[in-house]
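Hi V.,

Quick status before I head out on leave. The structure for the redesign project is tokenized and pasted below; the design run finished overnight.
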């Protein structure tokens, strides 16, 4: 993955399951295309390392964080998954109690339906969440606009151009994955990031 600094890194705190995969793939692409670098605990694979420690390191290294707290459906045993709200809490804690650059962290909080979070995590009252309605186009437009506003970078391209380039990338992805020797339906996170980096480098060269 690209070597980036604190002010370029975006912590991706979203469900990494099959149903959310199209959203994750597009989020990763758009973060790169906006000139930033996505970071996730999936980027490391050390069996001797605690998963929570990986997440904390990611948060520590990222000025920006995208948190989708909408995955609250019950599993087969009747329990919801609260990993995403938990990790967003660590991010908020780092911003509140961290030193130096940690205090300038910026977060984008996603939910499916606006203000649903008030029913299960009311401590977030007063936070300006964004609702994506499970629509990738809506989510990616909001991510682009958020990064443009919070970073004030003028180099971030418009949404229409990013969307056009992503559609072209997705069309070519099966062939690219085949050349890389990976299954297009199950590309490891780091491999996907490398593929995206190279595709963007070629498209804007």
């Amino acid at each position: 993955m690209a070597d980036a600094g604190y002010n370029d890194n975006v912590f991706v705190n979203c469900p990494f399951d099959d149903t959310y995969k199209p959203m994750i793939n597009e989020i990763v692409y758009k973060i790169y295309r906006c000139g930033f670098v996505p970071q996730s605990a999936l980027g490391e694979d050390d069996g001797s390392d605690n998963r929570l420690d990986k997440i904390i390191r990611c948060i520590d290294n990222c000025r920006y964080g995208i948190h989708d707290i909408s995955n609250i459906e019950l599993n087969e045993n009747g329990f919801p998954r609260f990993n995403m709200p938990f990790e967003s809490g660590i991010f908020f804690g780092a911003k509140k109690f961290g030193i130096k650059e940690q205090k300038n962290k910026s977060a984008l909080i996603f939910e499916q339906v606006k203000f649903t979070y008030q029913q299960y995590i009311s401590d977030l009252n007063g936070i300006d969440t964004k609702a994506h309605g499970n629509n990738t186009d809506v989510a990616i437009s909001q991510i682009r606009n958020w990064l443009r506003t919070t970073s004030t970078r003028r180099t971030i391209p418009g949404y229409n151009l990013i969307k056009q380039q992503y559609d072209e990338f997705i069309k070519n992805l099966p062939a690219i994955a085949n050349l890389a020797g990976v299954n297009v339906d199950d590309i490891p996170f780091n491999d996907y990031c490398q593929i995206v980096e190279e595709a963007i480098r070629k498209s804007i060269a």
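Above is the designed sequence. The first strand starts at residue 9 and ends at 13.

G. will cover questions while I'm gone.

Best,
W.
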